[in-house]
Amino acid sequence: MSVETNKELVRSFFDLIEQENYDALKDYCHEEFVFYPQLDAPFPGVEGLIESEKKNFDAFPGFRMPILSMTAEEDRVAVYFLFEGKHTGIPFAGVPATGKNARFSLMILLKVKNGKIVEQRSHVDVHDIIRQIS
User: What gap in Å lies between CA 14 and CA 66, rounded to an integer?
Assistant: First the structure.
């Protein structure tokens, strides 16, 4: 696959997350998919990604994730984007909903294999999020 095709795959993947269409993520993830949150503790399978991240997204219903930059080389795609949301959902990292806005940047590196995403590594400053909503 070309780097442009890989970038479009990744863009569509994040569009689905922003739409909270988690069931559709399975079509974009390779059977060997592994998600690595900021700490190096892997969650295997798309189910692991959803288990790990849905609870974070549910804390900020209606969130937005505008992509600011995307770079691709061979089978890797790097995405830099913002996360913008209001903390009106479930608790985040033990902090009950405060109604405060959170806006933070994320850097995610993805690997594509046979037309599907096989690995996702996320880097985010969780303490910055907690500082904003506390």
Answer: 9
Give the phi and the psi of residue 72 in degrees, each rounded to 5.
-135, 145
Pairing outcome for strands 116-123 and 29-36 = parallel
Query: Rounded to the nearest 5°, which phi and psi values hold at 89?
Result: -95, -135
Residues in the chain: 134
**Gap between the Cα atoms of 119 and 81, Å rounded:** 18
- The predicted pLDDT at position 19 comes to 94
Residue 57 exposure: Cα atoms within 13 Å on the Cβ side? 18
Q: Which of 52, 72, 74 is nearest to 11 (CA)?
A: 72
- DSSP conformational letter for 16: H
Contact 13, 30 (CB under 8 A): no
What residues in the chain have per-residue pLDDT under 70? Answer: none
pTM for the predicted model, two decimal places: 0.91
Residue 26: other Cβ atoms inside 10 A: 14
